[in-house]
Amino acid sequence: MNAVLAQPAPLPQALSRRSDSARRRHRIGHHALDPGVLRHFNELIARIDLQRAPLDRDQLASAARELIDDPAQGFAPACIHQRMRRAAAIDRMRADPEWGVDAAVASVGTLVIDYLRGPMALIPNALPVVGRLDDAILVDAAWAGIADEVRDYLDYCRLRHVEATLRGEARTHFGFTRERWLDARRAELEWIAHCDRVGRSSYLTANPSARFRVS
Q1: CA distances (Å), 71 to each of 66, 76, 113, 117, 200, in order?
Q2: pLDDT digits (tens, 9 = 90+) for 167-180
Q3: Closest C-alpha among 38, 51, 10 to residue 141
Q4: Backbone phi, then psi, for 28, in 5-degree steps?
Q5: Which pTM does this prediction carry?
Q6: Please, are residues 155 and 185 in contact by the beta-carbon 8 Å criterion?
């Protein structure tokens, strides 16, 4: 399975627990979490996922502490790294002129990428280990609503590469549109079904889509 689509490592449990009113942490290392920036962050999450509860400073500080205190996480925790790979796929999909991303998905993707690239970070990116924790939380909130579109886009990229190889194309973009991807995917599925019917599936190449070109 594509690493972007695989089930990622879970985010820290503190993010889903109620805060400990007796503790109320509000710092990650030497960085004090700004209440105004946190309010903006929660408003952004609410625009992306109406069902997700807002976070408070104690939850975030406790979540960061879970990652920092876990020696198995290392410098780049898997739960953050995997979600940043998803963010990269979202950004690539949005910017691809030949894909024609769904409008609703594009809107959510823009909210996520604008935050990741913007100046108003809840947790500074330069913080060791947890500097991208806020970004990972935002990607996680958005993922359920855009995962299907990303899955289709990654398959589109696979078949576009096949088509480019067959044509001897060196360009990334050469007119292989979303509609042409649908045609190529149908042809691939029909070929696989045909081989299954006639009992010759063992003769399939490692890349059955290479048998088709979309003219």
Answers
A1: 10, 11, 30, 29, 51
A2: 999 998 999 999 99
A3: 51
A4: -115, 105
A5: 0.85
A6: yes
